[in-house]
Design brief:
It is built from 6 helices and 2 strands. The protein is mainly α and about 160 residues long. It starts with a helix and ends in a 26-residue tail after the last helix.
Length: about 160
């Protein structure tokens, strides 16, 4: 073990001083989830807890990226569905991602798409009927030129 070779102790606690902290960078999320689940009691409580903490951090970062990379609420929901669909069964188990959670995100996506379409249709109607009067639509900030997001590709 490299920590012992260096005369230090291997630690799963990042606050512990004078120790070599575990580097999970070479572990994929499924492996971290398996360690966190520890269904066969192969790992210590500290190892399981540290693996779960690392998995939580990675998942938070992925979800934040999915939400912030979209310019619409529907796109954020679609991004979350992409994150969920890429998870292994072990990850979903550790993180509490159930069918109910996924179904709520799908329902949110559908609601946001419906609202966006309604605003887009309203904007089109307002623009064509008020083009002679010079009125400005309150929904003009919506991007009506974008391609609709496709949920079916992720189900």
């Amino acid at each position: 073990n490299q920590a012992l070779d260096n005369g230090t102790e291997l630690s799963f606690d990042p606050s512990q001083k004078n120790a070599q902290h575990v580097d999970f960078s070479n572990f994929d999320n499924r492996t971290l989830a398996t360690i966190a689940l520890n269904s066969d009691s192969t790992f210590s409580g500290a190892e399981s807890s540290a693996a779960k903490t690392e998995l939580d951090q990675r998942t938070r970062a992925a979800m934040l990226s999915a939400l912030s990379s979209s310019s619409s609420a529907a796109g954020g929901s679609l991004g979350l569905l992409q994150v969920y669909s890429a998870m292994s069964d072990e990850e979903k188990s550790v993180l509490g991602v159930t069918d109910a959670v996924t179904n709520r995100v799908i329902q949110n996506y559908q609601t946001m798409q419906s609202l966006q379409n309604a605003f887009n249709n309203s904007n089109s109607s307002n623009s064509s009927s008020s083009s002679n009067s010079g009125a400005t639509s309150t929904t003009g900030a919506l991007d009506t030129s974008s391609t609709p997001l496709s949920l079916s590709a992720y189900l």
